[in-house]
Amino acid sequence: xxxxxxxxxxWERHKVADLPNGQDxxxxxxxxxxxxxxxxxxxxxxxxDMAVAFPDRTVATTDHIVPTTREGRERPLADERAExxxxxxxxxxxxxxxxxxxxxxxxxxxxxxxxxxxxxVQPGMTVVCGDSHTSTHxxxxxxxxxxxxSQIRDVFATGSISADKKAVRRVEVTGELGDGVGAKDVILHxxxxxxxxxGVGHVYEYGGEAIRSLDMEGRLAVCNxxxxxxxxxxxxxxxxxxxxxxxxxxxxxxGEAFEERKEYWESIRSDxxxxxxxxxxxxxxxxxxxxxxxxxxEQVVGVDEPVPEPSExxxxxxxESAQAHTEVRPGETMEGHEVxxxxxxxxxxxxxxxxxxAARVLEGRxxxxxxxxxxxxxxxxxKRTLEAEGIDxxxxxxxxxxxxxxxxxxxxxxxxxLEGDEVCASSSxxxxxxxxxxxxxRTHLMxxxxxxxxxxxGAVTDVRAFDxxxxxxxSVADAEVDG
Amino acid sequence: MSGNGDAPGSAGDxxxxxxxxxxxxxxxxxxxxxxxRGDDIDTDQILPARFLKAVTFDDMGEYAFYDQRRDxxxxxxxxxxxxxxxxxxxxxxxxxxxxxxxxHAPQGLMRWGVEAIVGESFAEIFQDNCKSLGIATLAxxxxxxxxxxxxxxxxxxxxxxVDVRAETVRYDGTAVEGEVPDAMREALLxxxxxxxxxxxxxxxxxxxVNDSLPYTDD
Lengths: 483, 218
What we know:
The structure holds 2 protein chains of 2 kinds. By secondary structure, chain A is α/β, with parallel strands linked by helices. Chain A is built from 18 helices and 19 strands. Chain A has helices at about 5-15, 40-45, 80-95, 110-115, 150-160, 185-195, 210, 215-225, 240-245, 255-265, 315-325, 345-350, 350-360, 380-390, 390-400, 450-455, 465-470, 475-480, and strands at about 15-20, 25, 30-35, 60, 100, 125-130, 145, 160-165, 165-175, 200-205, 235, 280-285, 290, 300, 340-345, 370-375, 400, 425, 440-445. In chain A, strands 5-4-3-6-7 form a 5-stranded parallel beta sheet, with helices on both faces. Chain A has a 5-stranded parallel beta sheet with strand order 17-16-15-18-19. In chain A, helix 2 (about 40-45) packs across helix 5, helix 6 (about 185-195) packs parallel to helix 8 (about 215-225) and helix 13 runs parallel beside helix 16. The two termini of chain B are about 35 Å apart. Residues about 1-20 of chain B have low confidence and may be disordered. Classes of the chains: A alpha/beta, B alpha/beta.
């Protein structure tokens, strides 16, 4: 078993008791709540005549079902079932005394964007949410885990979950990332290398040069997709990048309290001589921008690399049916693969830095005529920050629709959905069949910069060519694709 | 649930069905099988997101594999969940239930009729959700999973039995060994797969942990 890792230290600090089923009762320091997976849990609580035990450790927002157009957000919502879910959350949080960022609060947004940016999430915490992408919060050196609704009931009633301690695998990402290559490319590459189920039974501790160099937004994107690699949690040891990010956040400690808290944050870092259950090295030196070609997040390739023959993949049957679905041919590169929709946002890539990155590509360019392009900030805070910087104008001038915050077309629980067999360049995290709202729809996962480039060209494009074009003052990329 | 703390082993096979507080022990699941082939079947396939828009799980049984059970015209096709109605032992392959944490997925399977799942491996959150609901999962080798699927297809009415205590699946006169996670096995056998009441008895200790943490005074 691992020893001296952040995971071990934070777990021990939060352990409440040994349970009769052999698992540990683990105290939860932050419970994030949204409208889709919580109403049933509140219902179960009521049936048992129990109250929420630690409302102060609980924060709620609405994200999955909310419309992302301003007019669509007027109450009651046009979709009666969405309105019912939102009303339930309003009522439930008010009754329990839980802080709630609703549609009338300009800080509303995706739980995994709101929690970090407001300073709720801090190193050394245990964080859960009824959403698999709770792994996001490991970016701070917290243990973040997605849970189901019965476990949400457990957390409401007891402030705890019943859980097994997992094995800790160090994922050492070596090398230096080139221009136009970032966190999203790193995590897609890691999942490609380790598989969609490679992390089952494990928690990933990401480290190494390529990880240390990432800003917090990048680290959040990496940890976010841990679950796509089968690891329920993934984390990065906190450092000065983490502490600088937290300074001045609305719900983070200030002044002397901040310095005191920092002692705890430093104390839970993995020891130099920590023992891991497993250690793998992934080389990210000279990594190309990564694009998914199939229907799960390990079916990924460098943009300039040929799509593999099914027989060359871990699961040939799955690869064959994936390629039939996406109409991607083995031997060809993803570059030039036409797209109908460009979608920028989500808990993976819906943060300020992600939109800045995309805006650098879009500046002075326009979305291709037949491409539908959506920019959906991850939160109201993200949206206002970008608007203050004038970045919204870059998106609008380029022809992107500039939307309100929500999960949107990641899983299409609102009106934002693929239609028919549309092909989408997406900054989201899942390319499963039907994920974006149409069973025939096709999703290609990529970085925000790559989504912007695909929007402009109407096809998957190597964003590194755009960077060159910028420097040369001419549009080399246009010439390449048209030719 | 009264919250008075069900002691381990206090509920047995004969726990009264009428009492909602009863937490029945689940030692074996016997019935017929439904084979579902393929690795990495995600929870978006099991229960598409558009059906999550409900404040209860009541209707989820109708939505299990909703899209895959229908052809382009919306008519029911030959998907196993159409062909093997009435079965209660689901036979799957590798990494079943990956993706979203939605408990709607195992709720949908359970309400369709699934009481136990035999497969090569299961995604963690999905497996935890199964434990919460009292659905047994048994992990077996690849060949054993495929053999079971082949057998069920050839013999749709044959009896299949998952024995939680012995960690085996029995059919066609043979017993195939597998693995039920320790916590799930203990929980099912002792009838403590519902953890709320048990953890509620430690509420004072949870409060102590809360008070001892350096970050809880914000």
